Amino acid sequence: MEAQPVINFDNTEHAFAYKSNKELKQARLLFSLMGKNWLVKMGTVMAPPAVKWNLPFVKSLIRSTIFRQFVGGETLEQNAEVADKLEKYGVKVILDYGVEGKEGEENFDHACEEFIRVINYSSTQPNIPFMSIKVTGFARFALLEKMDAMIHQNKGSLMKRYLKAVDDLDANEREEWHRVRTRMLRICETAAKGNVGVFVDAEETWIQDPVDALTILMMDTYNKEKCIVYNTTQHYRHDRLQFLKDSFDAAVERKFILGAKLVRGAYMEKERKRAAEMNYPSPIQPNKEGSDKDFDDAVRFCIDNIDKVSLVVASHNEQSNMLAVKLLEKKGLPLKHPHVHWSQLYGMSDNITFNLAKAGCSVSKYLPFGPIKDVIPYLMRRAQENSSIGGQTGRELGLIEKEMKRRAL
């Protein structure tokens, strides 16, 4: 067996080869600012209304700083420039059309058409194997919330509870849900024809059940021969490892490939606050160790069943990414296994992404795009994430400064 390349996440030469000296300095300044909690808190309060009011100075400032770091561009054409640049270093792209929180049937239909447009574009590009969607982009939040509550009240498997919930909707809501399901079917059908993978993003716990059920239905339809549809499991939730195993059992029974995108999660503070306010048990792990253990156990479970699971390790945790590498090596499987993919957000953890790519792994950057007013919620989450995750900003800064010193020598 041919020896696998040695992967070193401290190799900054590989990590930042795609960045110029000027771009490194800009990244260093941005992460330095995001390390100041007071500044991030002020910015996340003031930036959204300023963008909504269309203040030119604010939009220009955002565009030249945080937008440039974490977003591919405002249009598909601008995104293409970033994708072409990443392709030179063996890194693929997951396109994400930045639409969140826009209510109304007209907006839902528009979002659906945009998702389809992105899929059709991706199908013509060799470096864009996946795209990402949010069901909240084309479904009313309150309807999802009501269905989730109804599903919880019912008994039996998730799918039985989901089908009963649909039946129990009133006539208007049932018709509205039919439109949601039709949009999802159109998106997945287009993806299947274009051979583009669809990542269905995770949502808040109080709307997640109908999203899970709808995604499993799509996998049962489109994942028979190869994996097109992927569900996202957030392992800072203490129930998601078991849910992953239950989903696998359903895939075996229904004879489809389980698409499993593993993340730690994005709504922790919101989830804990809501649980406390409404006096129900928090769905979040009691500590970080619990999240890490369940995430890594999920990686092990997927690779142990890799013939029936298509795995995406979507993580900024070096140990979890390396675990997937070591498990493949232990089983004598290639790092570029067709059912294993790694991914990190654009603008973060380049030391993981580019060193995995250098070793021959199938790896991508999650690349959002859209007008600033549409991606501002995403940008605010990135700012908050980098200010609150212990060590993340310091790690990014340390690696950037290490590379700047290396280049200077």
List keywords for this structure.
alpha/beta, TIM Barrel, eight-stranded parallel barrel, 18 helices
User: Helical stretch count?
Assistant: 18
Radius of gyration: 21 Å
Through-space gap between termini: 38 Å
Number of domains: 1
- The arrangement of helices and strands along the chain is HHHHHHEHEHHHEHEHEHHEHEHEHH
- Report strand %: 5-15%
Structural notes for this entry:
By secondary structure, this protein is an alpha/beta fold. It has a single domain, classed as TIM Barrel (Alpha-Beta Barrel), CATH 3.20.20.220. Helices cover about 60% and strands about 10% of the residues. The protein contains 18 helices and 8 strands. The chain has helices at about 10-15, 20-35, 35-50, 55-65, 65-70, 75-85, 105-120, 140-155, 160-170, 170-195, 205-220, 240-255, 270-280, 290-305, 320-330, 350-360, 370-390, 390-409; strands spanning about 90-95, 130-135, 195-200, 230-235, 260-265, 310-315, 340-345, 365-370. It has an 8-stranded parallel barrel with strand order 1-2-3-4-5-6-7-8, surrounded by 8 helices. Helix 16 links the parallel strand 7 and strand 8 (about 365-370). Helix 7 packs parallel to helix 10 (about 170-195), helix 8 (about 140-155) crosses helix 11 and helix 12 packs parallel to helix 14. The protein is globular and about 70 Å long. The model has no long low-confidence stretch (mean pLDDT about 95).
Give the secondary structure arrangement, pairings included.
Elements: H1 12-15, H2 21-34, H3 37-52, H4 56-64, H5 66-70, H6 76-87, E1 92-97, H7 105-122, E2 130-133, H8 141-153, H9 158-168, H10 171-194, E3 197-200, H11 205-222, E4 229-234, H12 240-254, E5 258-263, H13 268-278, H14 288-304, E6 309-314, H15 318-330, E7 340-345, H16 350-358, E8 363-369, H17 372-388, H18 392-408
Parallel strand pairs: 1-2, 1-8, 2-3, 3-4, 4-5, 5-6, 6-7, 7-8
Helix pairs in contact: 2-18, 3-17, 7-10, 8-9, 8-11, 12-14, 14-15
